[in-house]
Amino acid sequence: MKKIIIIGHKNPDTDTIVSSLIAEHYYANVLKISAKAYRAGELNNETKFVLEKFSIQAPQLLRKVAKDDSFVLVDHNELSQTVDGLEIGQIERIIDHHKINLQLEAPIFLRTDPIGSTASVLARMYAEAGKKIPANIAKLMLSGILSDTLNLNSPTTTEVDRKLVKELNKIAKLNLKQFVVDLFSAKSSLKGISLATLITQDYKVFEMGKSKVGIAAWETTKPESVLAEKEKITNLLAEKKQKEKLDYIVFMLVDIVAQNSVLFIISEKEQALLEKVFAGKVTGSEMFLPKVVSRKKQIVPPLTEALTK
């Protein structure tokens, strides 16, 4: 039997999980169409915190793609990030806030806005439909926005996101200051996280010209706990690069509090590229980048430009 499956990218973050749940509610209550949210990977500690705090059940893990299923992609549109087995012709809708990098076989429903999160896009869709947002959905939206924009501090943040946070919290009625502290504490937690998981939990592969580039990110309020494991992490990254036949692999350690990043450099090849693209200083296989916190806006575009020339 044909199903409409709503799903985010592999290695899901909080925005991709909450957006799939919000989109499920949107389909049922705005479009009046039956669709079900799934996930394409394991939940991270921050997402677990959000769902447990608001007593919301996590989407089921999609284990197999059926040929006659239709898909709604949320928070992504690159084939390298889609669930295994999905074919382009199965996509019926995309809801996203990233650049479009997908060549489709036929026209589909497409909604993408250059704002801070996919949860923000969905909030706008509710407003445009004139539909009231329930409190539990407003809480999910706030979680997605605040997580993806690093509490409205990321350069991906827009005035739309700031206004949405104020409006949504009139419905959610959260103590936002404490909620953000708890959210980022969960985001930084290494509880139950192996180093192998750490480098894959927020990991995406990008096609940049003829190069295949893996970029992993870890956002934390305690970067020193990750820096202490740098040698082991770089060894794991080198193994991953070889296994996945990547041209480059980069690990981005984001300090949420100080609003800067450290890039781990695994080889001379990566160092040459990063020195060419960024003005950061390299010390001991690390490149420090002040005021850089966004993979989407500050890392991927300049790398793509350099590798597509």
Task: Note down, in words, how this protein is organized.
- The protein has eleven helices and twelve strands.
- The protein has 309 residues and is α/β, with parallel strands linked by helices.
- Helices cover 41% and strands 20% of the residues.
- It has helices at 14-31, 45-53, 118-129, 135-148, 159-172, 176-188, 195-198, 223-227, 230-243, 268-277, 295-307; strands spanning 4-7, 36-39, 60-61, 70-74, 91-96, 109-112, 203-208, 211-220, 248-255, 260-264, 281-283, 286-290.
- Helix 1 (14-31) runs parallel beside helix 3 (118-129) and helix 4 (135-148) runs antiparallel to helix 5.
- The longest helix is centred in the N-terminal third of the chain and has 18 residues, at 14-31.
- It has two domains: 4-185, inorganic pyrophosphatase (n-terminal core), CATH 3.90.1640.10; 195-307, Diaminopimelate Epimerase, Chain A, domain 1 (Roll).
- The strands form two sheets. It has a six-stranded parallel sheet with strand order 3-2-1-4-5-6, covered by helices on one side.
N- and C-termini, Cα separation: 47 Å
The CATH homologous superfamily of the largest domain is called inorganic pyrophosphatase (n-terminal core)
The CATH architecture of the largest domain: Alpha-Beta Complex
Measured on Cα atoms, how large is the radius of gyration? 19 Å
Mean pLDDT: 95
Layout of helices and strands:
Elements: E1 4-7, H1 14-31, E2 36-39, H2 45-53, E3 60-61, E4 70-74, E5 91-96, E6 109-112, H3 118-129, H4 135-148, H5 159-172, H6 176-188, H7 195-198, E7 203-208, E8 211-220, H8 223-227, H9 230-243, E9 248-255, E10 260-264, H10 268-277, E11 281-283, E12 286-290, H11 295-307
Parallel strand pairs: 1-2, 1-4, 2-3, 4-5, 5-6, 8-9
Antiparallel strand pairs: 7-8, 9-10, 10-12, 11-12
Helix pairs in contact: 1-3, 1-4, 2-6, 3-4, 4-5
